[in-house]
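pasting Riboflavin biosynthesis protein RibD for the record, 364 residues
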Amino acid sequence: MEVINDEFYMRLALQAASSAAGQTSINPVVGCVVVNEGRVVGIGAHLKRGEGHAEVHALNMAGDYAKGATAYVTLEPCSHHGRTPPCCERLIQEGVKRVVVAATDPNPLVAGRGIKRLREAGVDVTVGLLEEESRKLNEAFNKYIMTKLPFVTIKTAATLDGRVATRTGHSRWITGPEAREAVHTLRHRNAAILVGVSTILADDSELTTRLSVPGLHPIRIVVDSKLRTPVSARVLNGEAPTILLTTESAPAERARELEAQGAEVIACGPGPRVDLALALKKLGEKEIGSILVEGGGTINGSLLEAGLVDKIMLFYAPKLVGSEAPSAFAFQGPDRMGDALELENVSVEHFGRDWCVTGYPSNR
Ligand code: AOF
Ligand code: ZN
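structre below
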């Protein structure tokens, strides 16, 4: 049985926040629960960039009951005039007596000022309840707001011996339906999905979100140094925007043909290969805050070697296909085991007969 206390209400606020994961663009997900004398009087979440913050929705619901209430907020209430007015002023104005905050806001425009302002106005503020859970929900926001670079997650689906196809290249399907549904949830939650052109040429992938309920499509990004993507490729079907990352040495005529199909072509460096660090910078400038890489061994290896990966999610099926089959990570690797790329904060989840191992590379 759940016991009613501060943690209970903060968990409710975290759940409200996580319901909007994937739909707030470069904004964080935030939840707020307002409680007055033992009664929940308002629940809100930030649902869309440019629209109401979590506190505003919850306070609007609470109305007069906000006076003397406690507000549980998963992120420090903002203190700046952004697309919406500052939440800390609204909390003060409504007469909220106590505010419980999970995590401080790393946005340099806020960064502690929201909490300071509330305290100056005589509001009792507690900070740090379920802080880790809140930070994890906003791991992409936390990186983007400080660096203007997208948070990069590599996802692979491999056999237990780390292979992404058989020796003939056959790969449908490695993991089962439960794992594949989880991958579509990841697509919904990331702003963009990135693959190498070889994936397009081999599978004619559409790269959209296909769930049992409607999901959001990520922006589709293809790393294509020579612009070999066919104009008839499904990735250009208009279901979602498509960006082709290429080099200055790619044929200009191909670029025009692909642009005529609706693609945006972005040159990243002189070539012969796409400068991936520069590519991330340019994608960040376009306000792409998170990227799911479903790329194939070469892209995965290059990103890892360049230290550009924030998170890895390795789906494993209980199958073995032998050493002639292609690997999920094509990179040379170190001479000594002590120099291997290590994952930190590793967790394991089950999806049907498969597993997902999640970790954060130590070299990022
Ligand atoms: C809050 N509650 O629900 C959210 C906050 O452009 P704006 O006006 O939407 O402001 C975005 C910034 O506000 C964002 O970068 C982050 O610092 C904060 N987000 N703050 O008090 C919320 N979404
Ligand atoms: Zn706010």
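The two ends are 41 Å apart (CA to CA).
The chain has a mean pLDDT of 96.
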